[in-house]
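Fig. S4 source data, part A: sequence.
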Amino acid sequence: MSEKLFNLEPFNPDDRVDLEVEKNEQEYFRPEDEQNTEQYMEFLQERDAIIEEQARKNLSNQNIPDEEHPIALEREVHKLKYFPVLFISAPHIGEEVSGVFPGEPTPLMYATSVLDRYIRTDTFPADTSPEVTAMMNPGQFNDEFIQQLVESIESEKPRVVGISNTSEGHFFAGEIAKRIKEKSPETIIILGGSHEDGVNAEAYLNLVDSEQDVDAIREQSTLHNADAKKLFDIVVSGDAPYALTEVLKIIANNKGMDNREITEEILKHKDSFSNIEGVGNISVVNTNDEVETVPLSGMPLDWNKLPLMFRGRLTSENKFSIFDGKKTAQIMTQMGCKYSCSFCMESLSSAMYKTNKSSKPTVEKALEEIEMLINEYQYEAIFFDDSTFTQIPKRVDELMEGIIALQEKGTEFEWGCQTSFADIPNKESLEKMQQAGCSYIYFGFEQIEEQIGKKGKIVKLEKVEEVLAWCSEIDLRAGVSLQFGLEGLGDYKETVDYIGELYSTGLITKNSIAININTPYPGTKEWLDMENKPDFNQELQRHPRFESAHQLSNLTTDKVNEIYAYARQEIGDGLIGVEYSNQEIQQHLERYRKEFSNDFYFDDEQYGGYLKGEVEALHLNHASISN
């Protein structure tokens, strides 16, 4: 077997922290604050005493030498007190797809933030406690990952596996669940993520005209699929930090119950969930084989009380090629977007899952997280995942001042963000971002032909050119996202010609133009308006040259091929590419040389120089590696 992609080491007890340390987080969250502190701590002490007493009884009839007894006791206490939990961020691509940056599983880390804080302080408020063995974040669904998954299930025998998925990764989430159930039928599988948020019928009650419309959406939900019912025991939709913790409390307090008994116990505790902070619900299948929903309180989360994401259990390191392969963290400093583009999740999110403006993340908390990422986790770069990073100028200015202050104190890093051209007010704002360490901005352009300005984002070409010129003048790299198939049209040449001209004049950075195919994802206005909703239980067909699937779009495979061929001709190496190891490059070359003639080209001289060490790095764009 080749070198492992993942480090599936069990959680190290040394990672646990005292309640009085990690001062930054104490300002926002202390687990014992959720209950009466004195009674809470007494409960934990009594629980641990009971567990130790039971462990001693279990060892009393065994002939253990005195010198070995302390270790044996520690192991027995651990076995009685903890149960293993594994988290997985389902990949959204298979091994045949390249050129896609998987990124960090920030939704999953956010969902487990409260749970992680309890675990790391060893203060989980139940008779037993979960212990997270790993958070698997594979870039692709491939044989290597499957083997690692199976090995982990067989060795750790997790009582619970939590899977986070997107709509594009929903099929792979099901494949992961199948393998888990095959090896460990008694494992409870909890499913969550943006796809579950998008197909949560209850979230659409205020957005549709009739109960029939709600029922139509409900039929799209995961547990209404007969096969999925056999795989997933619990589905979490909406705000997960406190809801997930409550689910695990029920499991921890009922260690001897089977999976069906646990789901019945959740239904018995509906009142507990109705008091939990957050908007969303828990779904399970009851004894009558019917899907039953347990709502949360509906009270928006106070983001400033949530603990910072714990990144110590990730099994894959995040490296972003745009930052020359530096270890890169992804964070969000604000929620939501002022635009309502019909193809984006943000078009409905504020109506589906209410937020409280006064409880959104503060600039101060963002700076605390940045400082922790650089100084404690040794990240070298940060990419801000805010939908439109510069949409609130005053906030951006405050954040820039804070980052500059951190840089001056020695917390050095480079960073990038994504935003719209319309939200760059002037050249001075870009200069300040650059002063704070910004080296790359990814702009949403989408497509000229679709006239998307009619709905949401307005794209004025003169503004595009002005902003890109500012970036060029101060050597700030700029990337652009294109999206074809919007509004049901298949035209593309005007967009490609325009972007190609901008690239040829040096206004867009090399290898920074991403081309996407519009797909109506759950949670978007496009999806809601569709009479016949697409089936995301099937494996999506992804053209290896595009960053998004095209199977459910209005574009045919032939049209997708046509778009790429034209983009390759007009834009060339402006298209986003991907780096490979020498072995992977050779495999690609051998396969493509045999299979393609007219649709393949490669600079053998440059490759030879790379192998000799004369060229420091080799970049393959989609045109030279795709099939």
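Fig. S4 source data, part B ends here. The chain has 24 helices and 16 strands.
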